[in-house]
Amino acid sequence: MKVLDLMGIPAPEKEKITALPNVQVESTDYLAQHGLADITVIFGWNKQAAALLPENTSVRFVQSFSAGVDYFPLTTLQSKNILLANTSGIHAQPIAESVLAYILAFARGVAASAQRTPADFWASDDLRASVFTLPGKTALIYGTGHIGRAIAEVLAQQGMTVNGISHHGEPVAPFATVGRDSDSLALAKAADVIVNIMPLTAETHHFFNDAFFNDLTGAPLFINVGRGPSVDTKALVAALHNGQLGGAALDVFEQEPLPADSPLWQAPHLLMTPHISGAFAGIYAAAADILYHNLVQFVQDGTLAENQVDLQQGY
Amino acid sequence: MKVLDLMGIPAPEKEKITALPNVQVESTDYLAQHGLADITVIFGWNKQAAALLPENTSVRFVQSFSAGVDYFPLTTLQSKNILLANTSGIHAQPIAESVLAYILAFARGVAASAQRTPADFWASDDLRASVFTLPGKTALIYGTGHIGRAIAEVLAQQGMTVNGISHHGEPVAPFATVGRDSDSLALAKAADVIVNIMPLTAETHHFFNDAFFNDLTGAPLFINVGRGPSVDTKALVAALHNGQLGGAALDVFEQEPLPADSPLWQAPHLLMTPHISGAFAGIYAAAADILYHNLVQFVQDGTLAENQVDLQQGY
């Protein structure tokens, strides 16, 4: 059984995987020479794999390197009965730390100080009056899955009250309150920090738009560590310029790579990172470990051990 | 019993205080009209209060708004048996959060991303490889007093191992290890993050000098939230340029305000804030809360609940 490795499985994990009965690992060279012929499992994804999949009959399981799988041809995978697994879980800790990093950069005046010039650096009365501490502040997290919960845990640990929004609206620890979409406005108005970690679906596309930002009253911080297209970039830029938002941090963007002429570059009170909130030294090993566990099960009975994506739902 | 409020107690705290049996709050208008006549407690301090105190016989307790009380007439207070309390303690939480903010700004690539231009923003392979998470990392805090302990608690909560250095070297929770000055080198070499929160004395002046930085082997982060002159600025700048330090964050400086021609402005991997790590928006409420707790006790038995200054020692 051939496993096509498009990501570069680290040596220790590769050794475990090739020790499985009848399993061979092929590199991107194989893809260049033979396409997807005789490939049963793909680890990672690229344009060439996407182009070849519709005509291929051997692929039975794709292990993504990401938590979100919106960029996969879900309908094709479903019609061909190909299993898809994500790496949901390994990004939770780094993303939660990144969210805390963004919040604290604003709360403790680090972001504002970094933008000052030698001439105005010490004129800090405005900073002194605006810096704050986290206990007693309220966060609202859109998405109460495991990454949302990991973020909630880190923020609750800092003394924040953390509410959530989900489809089902069912109580989930450690959220103080979980509302449905219909509770969004009331909870958003009460929030000092709003975090998006929803998957990208037709319903979440441009969920954060002019109407959303215009309804806010407390000039909260807005953080997007979910998917770029969940935010209407124009609306966000306007909300930063007109003060509907006190600040924003974006790790994901409607268009990636972020274009050099994006209006985001001129927006005030904005922190940006280049889609790295889920990254950490050790991420390849962690993803390959999920692949390994799934392969063990897949070799045995053709099912997956963990992180299987519901192709109908898209996550 | 009249409490003279020279600071402006915020409304919620004022409500709690006036609900105490037989307690009235008077404003600075009272001072202008009646002086200190019939005043039992003073919150804050000013020149008029200082001038009137020697002839006054009713004041029994002064609650300062500051941690340091060197500007009070300690001898007069002592001879008149007037109790004095400071606000020591309210800066621990904001300073601890600031330390976490600096560490996470480096760990999660926020500081490095903010320095990128539109043209090189998305070239993030180096960032992806360098960002890290906090669990398993080691911090060394110079100073194990109450602010040092608050920093240690916040970092330990993030999964870091936190060691400390103090004069006595005695074990203090939540430090994993507390060493004396003689253990400094060994513990510093093992640290991913080094934090200074020592008071400034003859012994701590330029404690962090060329010799200190040159001995480091793991390119740690260095954070100063203590006193500026504890660091030899030239040595720090050299350590940043030559890579002995992986990065640094300074809230205090040898010369304050920080001069526009300081070599720090040209140093790489450096975050600076203008002596604001202890500031926070609720500082008036926090100080009034100490006053409230002291009043509760004072009304009951004439003693103070917290933060009483030893008038002989002066702190």
UniProtKB/TrEMBL annotation, chains A, B:
The lineage of its organism: Bacteria, Bacillati, Bacillota, Bacilli, Lactobacillales. GO terms for molecular function: NAD binding; oxidoreductase activity, acting on the CH-OH group of donors, NAD or NADP as acceptor. Residues 100-277 form the D-isomer specific 2-hydroxyacid dehydrogenase NAD-binding domain. PANTHER family: 2-HACID_DH_C DOMAIN-CONTAINING PROTEIN, D-ISOMER SPECIFIC 2-HYDROXYACID DEHYDROGENASE NAD-BINDING DOMAIN-CONTAINING PROTEIN. This is D-3-phosphoglycerate dehydrogenase. Keywords: NAD, Oxidoreductase. Belongs to the D-isomer specific 2-hydroxyacid dehydrogenase family. InterPro entries: D-isomer_2_OHA_DH_cat_dom, D-isomer_DH_NAD-bd, NAD(P)-bd_dom_sf.
